[in-house]
Amino acid sequence: MAEIGDLLVPDVDLDTDSVVLTGKGGKQRQVRFGARTAGALRRYVRARSRRPGLIGIDQLWIAAKGARPLKPNSIKIRLRELGNRTGVEHVHAQRWRHSFAHEWKLAGGDTGDLMLLMGRSSEEMPRRYGASAAAERARQVHARLGIGERV
């Protein structure tokens, strides 16, 4: 959660639709985001720029009230509240990581590339993130390959 919670305004590049994330050990990586995310970020940055009292505050995420940065734990709480309000259970950042890893692998994405995007130096965590949906992926690949249908 700290990777997103500690973002600074200069970390977001709306020209390339990417963000520089700083992971554990200060390792940085650039990650692209999609058009819908880019649109939402553009609207947020515009609204943020109109908020009074933010001069000298480089943190991207600002609390709803006042001119203070939103802490990573506050983002965690906010995600849970939004999930509860919309009827989606168990909303948390790790859920996104699991879903992303599953979709990546389902689309045929390489584990090494996934490791780079997720800021991991070993295959353990990306494998764990994608493991919860591994059986579903295996069934889909099996159906696509049609092995056993040519007998």
Can you walk through the features of this model?
With 151 residues, this protein is mostly helical. Helix content is 50%, strand content 8%. A hairpin with a 5-residue loop joins β2 and β3. It is elongated, with a radius of gyration of 19 Å. The model has no long low-confidence stretch (mean pLDDT 85).
Key attributes of the depicted protein:
7 helices, three-stranded antiparallel beta sheet, 50% helix, 151 residues, mainly alpha
Short précis:
This protein is mainly alpha-helical. Helix content is 50%, strand content 8%.
Strand order of the largest sheet: 1-2-3
Tally of helical segments: 7
What is the number of E strands?
Answer: 3
What global shape is seen?
elongated
Mean pLDDT: 85
Low-confidence stretches: none
Distance between the termini: 50 Å
Strand content: 5-15%
Largest sheet: 3 strands, antiparallel
Q: Which secondary-structure class do the elements indicate?
A: mainly alpha
